[in-house]
Design a protein that fits this description.
Layout lengths: L2 E10 L2 E10 L3 H8 L3 H8 L7 H14 L5 H6 L3 E9 L5 H16 L3 E6 L4 H13 L2 E6 L9 H8 L4 E4 L9 E5 L1 H14 L5 E5 L5 H16 L6 E4 L6 H12 L7 E4 L2 H13 L9 E5 L3 H6 L4 E4 L2 H17 L8 E4 L2 E4 L1
Parallel strand pairs: 3-4, 3-5, 5-6, 6-7, 7-13, 8-9, 8-10, 10-11, 11-12
Antiparallel strand pairs: 1-2, 12-14
Helix pairs in contact: 1-2, 2-3, 5-13, 6-7, 8-9, 10-11
Amino acid sequence: MCKSLIFEVQNVNQTIFIHYIRVKRITIKDIARDLKIHHSTVSRALRGSSTVSFDTRKKVNEYAREIGYQVNMNALQLRGSLKNMIAIVVPNIYHNFFSNVVSLVADLAFRKGFVVSIFQSNESYLQEKEIVQMLIRNNVAGVVASVSMETQDSGHLRALSKYRIPLVLFDRVCPDLEVTKVMVNNQEVVASATEILIERGYRHIAHISGPSHINVFGDRQAGYLSALKKHGLDYQRIVRIESGFTIDQGKETAASLFMEKTRPDALLCDSHLLSLGAIFKIRELQLKIPEDVGIVGFGDNPYIDSFNPGMISIVQPDALIASTVFELIFKRIENFDAAISETKMLPASIIEK
């Protein structure tokens, strides 16, 4: 029987007494006995198996939390299966959008008896591929992913289906994969934001974006170009950054743009980090926002708002994305053989300062 030790220390008349108190580790068999169900049913319920009814899984997981049962992750790994684990793979965890979605999904998963493991690819295709291969070896319950900037071959993600591991892609997705996807109306919302700049009198609007083979950036660039074409503007300038976004990249790109013969009078930035870097450079050049230069950025960042209240923000619905992602991955875990693919397009909003 597995037991743990608790050390109780007392100091009596400067003499130290140490009492060893043995505490029995709570096991699956204890839960089974208390709930009067078979221990194999408890085991499958704790792993989130669809062979156990939803009501029974809920009862088992709630009781396990109530009595302080801890899943023995080492034992699960030795059996080569982590069926109570949802893996989330993101390009980076320092970006506000990804960290918000990860945090919200983790909370929702916990309430359903799942644990969440978070992996970041650091915008590397090879690292993303290795992560997915490791998740297949461990036979996780499901995978939620947003792909790296380098990802053009989706073969590693396609392999998940072969091993009956459900996949939900969000934000950055692989268009050629027939899997469940959650996206934002990037083309529409960027076209609207660009039109706001045009209506405010800006005529030389530059777009600092990412590689166009990634759906998010390709859609945003299409929205930007469509707005310029609609209003008959000839100035079209897109700078595509092929690696991860940083403040320094925003600053350096803005500096380069302002040195060009026809300099921009507005910037559309595909990240709050790029926006912040651009704002630093604009201030160094002693230009004013929005009087001299207009700014559109992604994300409702309180720091940037207080630092520079004149910018326009495109805000993605983080909470709605997270709840939709979890609802869909949970549905796929419950019934892997359900509809092969399902795409949800969610609306972003624009905040004008």
